[in-house]
Amino acid sequence: MSNVAIRINSVAKEYQVFTRPLDLAIEVLTRRARHTTFRALDGVSFEVQRGEVLGIIGPNGAGKSTLLKIITGVLEATSGSVEVSGRVSAILELGLGFHPEYSGRENIYLSGLLYGMNKGEIDRKIDGIIAFSGLGDFINRPVKTYSSGMHARLAFSIATAVDPEILIIDEALATGDAGFVQKSLRRIRQLCSGGRTVLLVSHGTALLAQLCNRVVWLDQGRVRMVGPSMQVVQAYDLAAHQSSDEESWIETVDDALDKEKSNQPHLATAESSSSGVDGSIVEKVAAAPRQKALEPRKLFESNQSGEDRSVGQQIFRRGPVFIDSVELINSAGERTTRLKFYEHALLRIKYRVDGPLPESSLGVAISINNRLDLSSVAQFYTQNIRPFETRESYDSAPDRRKPARRGTIDLHFDYVPFRKGEYLLSIGLLPNEPATWEFYEYRHFYYPFFVEDAGMDLGAPVFLDLSLVHRPMENETPEANEGVSGSPSATMPSLDGGVTDRSAPEAAAPEYRLATLRSEIEAICFREGGYPKTWPRHEACPACDQVALAPAFSKYSFTHAQCSACGFVTVDPYPPDDIIAKLYDGAYYTQVRNLFEAPLLLGCGDATPFSAPKETLMAVIDRATRGRASGTWLDVGGGLGAFANLIAEARPSWTVKLNEFNKKSVDIARNAFNDRFTISTADLANLRASGELFDVISSVAVLEHIPKPKEFLQGYASVLKPDGMLVTVVPHFSELNAKVSRASSANVVPPYHVSLFNERGLRRLLGRVEGLEIVAIDQAGPSAFIPVHLVDYGDYYDITVPTEEDPQPRSIAVRSYSTEESNAINALSQAEKDSNDYFAERDGRQLLIAYCKKKGSS
């Protein structure tokens, strides 16, 4: 079979259907047919190459599961042939062979044997299966006590532990809770990128576009289309829209973002009607040929240059509102398909109404997807009730206006927030009615465009922050212009980024709930804070103060600079005090502490919210209190008080004080630890004014957040007793990290980590603090440099802001890895396990712990 792993040749499957059970007996006795024949599959043919990931899509009843069962030998075909070359593992039904009375561990062996593994193979894999399932102690309980989600977790973990040459998966991805679904998807991506031949059935079109080389579209037992994944996915999605609305049709339209005229066949225009052409617009539309059956077409090509290739694509139409043209306009006022990051842009949609004007206001929905894998980047829509609205105020919103006979909808980007790359723009017009998605017209994955990074890089937010002006054409009826005050230009933001005065109260910009850490940082630092124009810059290195800083790299568009003398790296320009205050009082920082860290701390589980491993902190306590039976200890920026509590427990004769400034953290610490230590919210000036001095002052994972670390240390050294100990624990941004991994290092989290220390830079910094003498700088933890940093994986993820419904901060993949990246990450992750000690010897460990003594007599 050479490179063919699976060959399907004219496969058909028929079932005998009896109206009544009695008819089967009558047919057997009389030998006269009492049944009808149902063809679940009707002449299906295609091939799957070795190493190919092939998707299968289609509506319920299309024959997908029947086909997979024939391929795996569960069913026999009525006619045709199936040739399979290689060991096959199929996930057709989760929970194959589970016995309800057996424990989860016992069912791993039972189910694993049914999947074709031997006992030795299961023995080797069982720990990994249990760990992946996340069932913990439940693994030793009977399966009959499991919830449906726990049952699915265990079943999926077993099924994907098999190591086949050919993997067949039938809708097994939506298992368990939201966290486990993401975990399952990562496992499927790993399996697909490992060189296996994979057959994947799913209703998730975007998932198939990401994972599959090609997709087969089955419909009523026949192959309707086979081709590149994105082409088939677009055709299938449009057909799904069209099949749900008998009045709709699929039509081919030529349009492009940067062309002066668009060619739209079959549809009359308002100009032709007004120029004396016989017949009304409605009659012309009704008489136009409507394409009820969607035919396969070439949709678009890979397009590194950004040139528009959208000629001749198919769209969904129902009317009576139609899109005439779509324009993308850059900050220079030019139509384009290429935008630049952080520059103003305008998306303009020109429409017309052919027939009676709809009663509902006209809504717009857009989505932007990554061109490479169709991952969703952003969306914006007007029809649903938004968090800042009520049902009573819905119709009075300034961006909801009734359609005119002809009009323009402008969507303004105050800045282009998308990172460098290729994107696909989808646009739909629909009535503004909550919870409806019945489009007048929908152009799915229609417009490709390209974003240049303008020398910077940034990930995209999930939800676009736009202002919208609905501007009917001049000389229209008063009804069409109802609710629009002043001339159109009076309410339009200018293309240079300025915005004219909007006096109407309802035009005030709404406050959207920020769903991710990155969106909050962008709001605080970029939109409100004015980065980089209004932020201060360092005149010299904040650590050694010897030389000026030189640009080193950029991450999330924050520029990092490095000192050539000591190697210290910092965010430059750095956040001013008001921005720092907003960041630490923001939703992400507050919610992480309140909803994620606090339950861990109060629950006293194995996972605790220490900023360093417990054994490292115990070593700090031992060294700092050596030779002292009692004393006073101030822990600065100690968050929820976990370290302060550890000190109080380990040294009960010492007086411990937590110095913390975040109100939520202070409330949690007081609730968690009562009177085990005191809590101070005083700043340095008030601490000095009180006259209180301390034997030990510690800052654990604090100094990396301080843009002027020398001033910070000097201030706290002033409230240290003579011979007292100042202890500083910081992440180690090592020499190799600075030279090789750079922005991909886990320590680079701008604008939170503004100071990145190596040992040389930390030593220079501490040497400049008056009155301090360095006792030692130790290192702790695993290697500071890990090989996986070589792959810049950090830019592709964002972290959600915890909520009551989902208190765990989660990563959101905004683009999946290519096969090459996946293989590199897998290989380097394995190498990291084997080479940690080598790199720790070569380059140091993750934490730097500095001990300094206050000069003076005892």
TrEMBL record:
Any Gene Ontology CC annotation: membrane
Keyword tags: ATP-binding, Nucleotide-binding, Transport
GO molecular function: ABC-type transporter activity; ATP binding; ATP hydrolysis activity
Segments of this protein annotated with the region Disordered: 476-505
Domain ABC transporter: 24-245
CDD domains from the UniProt entry: ABC_KpsT_Wzt (cd03220), AdoMet_MTases (cd02440), Wzt_C-like (cd10147)
Transferase among keywords: no
UniProt xrefs under InterPro entries: AAA+_ATPase (IPR003593), ABC_transporter-like_ATP-bd (IPR003439), ABC_transpr_TagH-like (IPR015860), Bact_Polysacc_Export_ATP-bd (IPR050683), P-loop_NTPase (IPR027417), SAM-dependent_MTases_sf (IPR029063), Wzt_C (IPR029439)
SMART domains: AAA
Family: Belongs to the ABC transporter superfamily.
Protein name per the record: Teichoic acid ABC transporter ATP-binding protein
